Amino acid sequence: MLSKSQARMFFFGGTIFFSSIFILLTIDTLAKVDERQNVDLLTPSVIRGKEIWDSNNCMGCHTILGEGAYYAPELTQAVSRRGVQWLTIFLRDPAAMFPGQRRMVDYDFTDAQIEDVIAFLDWIGKIDTNGFPPEPDLRPPAAPVVASTATSASRPAYFDEVCVACHAVGGKGGGVGPALDGVAKRFSEEELHRWLADPPSVRPGTAMPNLNLPDSTRTELVRWLRTLE
Amino acid sequence: MKFKSQRVAYLFFATSLLLFTLQIVFGFIMGFAHMGFDVLHDYIPFNAARASHLNLLVVWLLSGFMGATYYIVPEESDREIYSEKLAVVQWAALVIVAVIAIIGFHMNWWEGRKFLEIPRPLDYLVVLDILLFLFNVGMTVWNAKRFTTTVSVLLLGLVSAAFLYLPGMITFESQVLDSYFRWWVVHLWVEGVWELIMGGILAFLLIKLTGVDREVIEKWLYVIVGFTFLSGILGTGHHYYFIGAPEYWLLVGGVFGALEPLAFLGMALYAVTMARRGGMRHPNRIALFWTVGCGVMSFVGAGFLGFAHTLPQVNLWTHGTIVTAMHGHMAFWGAYAMLVLAIISYAMPQMTGRKLFTGWLPEWAFWTSNVGMIGMTGAFAVAGIAQVYMERKIGMDFLAVQEAIEVHFLGLVLAAALLSLGVGMFIWNFIQYGLPNDEAVTGA
Ligand code: HEM
Ligand code: HEM
Ligand SMILES: [Fe+2]
């Protein structure tokens, strides 16, 4: 039968043995991790972004690399999911993009700070995470796109970066605003210009934010919207 | 109690229960926010509630461990505490840290790393406080005639816990390294050195409550904590799968993480077997309930529910979802909350000389709180599994999924109400005991 001194040996021996292996593996990890995290992309902007991330405890609502809280979206792939444009607008005024939804803190970030946060998220998204987050493997097959070829040809990139988060066209896109199929029948070119320039001034209290579109982008968007018969 | 100075434990136990109550309040705030009622958002945003919930948890458990140590060490070492005054000073420092930290969180003053939110300047106060505590306990043991295995395991746990706080105080520019070393604190605490503290306190309670021979109990103590480190150290790898660390951690973490439940199975068998062998003859049955309950529930929460998501094939899908919260609640409750409640249940009659452990109140406190916690775990489990399927497997939008699982948080809050009722009864019982008094001192 096991004696007490043997039990003690088992405890101390095991502890020393496994601690040593753990230290060795840590040294090896530190040597290998620079490549997996793209240390050359770890710019001052990314580091500033991390400071903003930490000092505001964003991890108290969000997860990143799967760590944090379960109240707000996982942000490891935020940049590839949403794009820089969308994130910039979102971070200027979080409530505007998700009217009436679960709320994020409105931080009043400067444009420079927003750039840093996005640089940080972008860097996070490029880390080799052994496949996390995984591709959904039970996703229903995507519905065939109904939009006619003529319209999709000149569809502005800005629409897919930002507007599509709230509007659907041809059955694809968000549901915050109305689907825009057939919008050309409802609005004239001029009305669309006025609307996109500043929605709240046209319809006070509307949930569509003023996106501060440059004139050229607005013109491009209106031209395309007018083709959605 | 044998020595007068053991009474200082009362201060720590009372603080423990007070902070526990506060922790539960913040739990409810988050539960309601998940249901869609984040009415306090402008004053207590979710991240402030969460940081408070977690740090209050850690501080009330530490306060409980300290109280336990001040109670156990004199008794085991056969002498008064080195300095009762120092113990009070050290208690005050702990309370000051906790109060400043919680207020700071609400003013956006924190570090923003889960479980280590306490801002850096306060970290130094924590270190100072722990050093005072260890000094006081160390001096008590140093000059003692007796040095038992139970005390040595307990002390080893406390000293290593203090030591492992340090990796959490290093600043990193890389999120990957930040996370890598955050786990040296978080994982190596709860699945490593805190288990030594747990083992030490359990051994003490079992020696006192079952009458089984000390040699037998302490021998098995070594075996169990041996298994803890055998599996738990490399088991840290189950947090390194997806944070940017090399691929071999999938194997190392997978294998050793899967072995970790053995230590908790050991704790459960240990408590149950010793209680059986002792024939449950001790009059303070309720302290034995909490002690055996701690062993069993730690196996369910940490061992079984930990195993449920520790394999990399599973963790890939459940990582960072409400499934983790399910496991976190039951594990902390079973292993550490019940442990502190067990030592309080044992020590109060000894410190006050009053035998208020019979009757319905303490027994109902035990059953109600445990049924409540099981219900909460169930609610988190259903919400978590639904989230994994809808968000991770099917690819639905995050917010749409959250709306779909809101109803399970109603279940959570109802079960939490039951838990709170149980805890309330426990605290009422605690208050009825009154303060420690000198008549209860029996002498060595
Ligand atoms: C008393 C002991 C334990 C406690 C208090 C505990 C508590 C926790 C907590 C609070 C977390 C979330 C940590 C964070 O994200 O910062 C966690 C995560 C985890 N625990 Fe435990 N745990 C215990 C034991 C175990 C055991 C024995 C196992 C394995 C068998 C285990 C497996 C895991 C895994 C795999 C995760 C990561 C979950 C994820 O990927 O999101 N735990 N635990
Ligand atoms: C009684 C009322 C309680 C309620 C309503 C409650 C609710 C919650 C909620 C909603 C979260 C946040 C999950 C998220 O990030 O979205 C949380 C986190 C947590 N709570 Fe509680 N809780 C309660 C009591 C407790 C108790 C008694 C313990 C410990 C014994 C505990 C330990 C934890 C831990 C460890 C976490 C972090 C989990 C993780 O990050 O995986 N809670 N709680
Ligand atoms: Fe762990």
Please sum up the structure shown.
Chain A is mainly alpha-helical. Chain A has twelve helices and four strands, in the order H-H-E-E-H-H-H-H-H-H-E-E-H-H-H-H.
Description:
Chain A is mainly alpha-helical and 229 residues long. Chain A has two domains: 37-125, Cytochrome Bc1 Complex, Chain D, domain 2, CATH 1.10.760; 152-225, Cytochrome c-like domain (Cytochrome Bc1 Complex, Chain D, domain 2), CATH 1.10.760. Chain A contains twelve helices and four strands, in the order H-H-E-E-H-H-H-H-H-H-E-E-H-H-H-H. In chain A, the strands form two sheets. A two-stranded antiparallel sheet of chain A has the order 1-2. A two-stranded antiparallel sheet of chain A has the order 3-4. In chain A, helix 4 (84-92) crosses helix 6. The radius of gyration of chain A is 25 Å and the shape is elongated. Chain B is mainly alpha-helical and 444 residues long. Chain B has a domain at 1-118. The longest helix of chain B is centred in the middle third of the chain and has 36 residues, at 175-210. The model of chain B has no long low-confidence stretch (mean pLDDT 96). The interface between A and B is large, with 67 and 71 residues. Bound molecules: protoporphyrin IX containing FE (2 copies) and fe (ii) ion. Fe (ii) ion is lined by residues 187, 191, 238-239 of chain B.
As a percent range, the share of helical residues of chain B equals over 70%
Mean pLDDT of chain A: 91
- Count the strands of chain A? 4
Quote the distance from N terminus to C terminus of chain A. Answer: 87 Å
Main β-sheet, spatial strand arrangement of chain A: 1-2
Which structural class matches the secondary elements of chain A? mainly alpha
Helix content of chain A: 40-55%
Shape of chain A: elongated
Q: List the helices and strands of chain A in order.
A: HHEEHHHHHHEEHHHH
